[in-house]
Amino acid sequence: MTERTPVRVMGILNATPDSFSDGGRFLDPAAALAQARRMVAEGADILDIGGESTRPGAAPVEVEAEIARVAPLIAAIRAESPVTLSIDTMKPQVARAAIAAGAEIWNDVTALTWAPEAADVAAELGCQVVLMHMRGEPRTMQAAPVYQDAVGEVEAFLVARAEAAMTAGVARARIWLDPGIGFGKTLAHNLTLLAHLDRLVALGFPVLLGASRKSFLKALDPRAASAADRLGGSLAAALAGAQAGVAAVRVHDVVETVQALALARALAQAR
Ligand code: HH2
Fold first, then answer.
1. Candidates 46, 132, 181: which one to mutate for ligand 1, based on the most atoms within 8 Å of Cβ?
2. What's the 74 CA to ligand 1 centre distance in angstroms?
3. CATH number, position 195
């Protein structure tokens, strides 16, 4: 029998008008809280709350507006649930407000590079930090990204960012790494990274994988033109992550992912 640590499920909750999959659905606070409750009931271990879309071409959001979208929502969820909460932001001021409202994780798609003070703020907040790889910036990142060695370059970037965070005072045990599927990557880069997740896992930090409903899945199945039609590919990616030993998967479809991961775990135990 092989014992595996259960892969944690991070449910995505975007309080934005323009996120690529759930944009506009949870801008209303009551709808967002209802979705949070639903994902917790479905078995989410973590909720990742975002107030600014990172999709190519998304409109930038001012700090105050972003805080107004996420902080009251985080406080409302925290008031009724012990679920772990994560703030998906690149802005230190937003992270600070979200942690004060009850979040425990700062999920930063820029790996603490957006503002010069980001790593110091993360250290001061004492929260967990997700460092994600992105090539370029959201507006332009999908314009012909080039790598000589995608896995090696992502790995080297993440190790360097983890070292920068630790130098600023973030405890090693609080750092997560994320390959940033879809952020400045072609289909081939995304597939190579998914196929070599074990190399990121071997670095010794918990790894977060976010492949849910992303557009590379459409390239493998032209019928999956709309984000909501990518459940099958999303589940397959989550299972590939589980196989490689990732710590958590960031997903839109919580109940389906929980079920798929439960089967993978049961099969591993039955060996
Ligand atoms: N992907 C998105 C946003 N944040 N954070 C991490 N750590 N990893 C990811 O892969 C990741 C992320 C993009 O997805 P989504 O939030 O659904 O869309 P949008 O950026 O349009 O709000």
1. 132
2. 18
3. 3.20.20.20
Q: Is 199 a catalytic residue?
A: no
2 belongs to a structural domain: no
In which domain, by residue range, is 79 found?
8-270
Nearest ligand 1 atom to the CA of 53 is 22
Measured from the CB, is residue 208 less than 6 Å from ligand 1? yes
Distances (CA, A) of 26 to 23, 76, 101, 201: 7, 14, 19, 33
Q: Which parts of the chain sit beneath pLDDT 50?
A: 1
Residue 2: per-residue pLDDT: 52
Q: Is residue 18 part of a domain?
A: yes
Give the whole-angstrom CA distance, residue 248 versus residue 210: 9
Domain membership flag for residue 40: yes
Centre of ligand 1 to C-alpha 204, Å, is 23
Q: Domain count of the chain? A: 1
- The reported pLDDT for the residue numbered 3 is 56
| The pair of three-digit structure tokens given for residue 191, joined into one six-digit string | 């597939």
* Domain-embedded: residue 138: yes
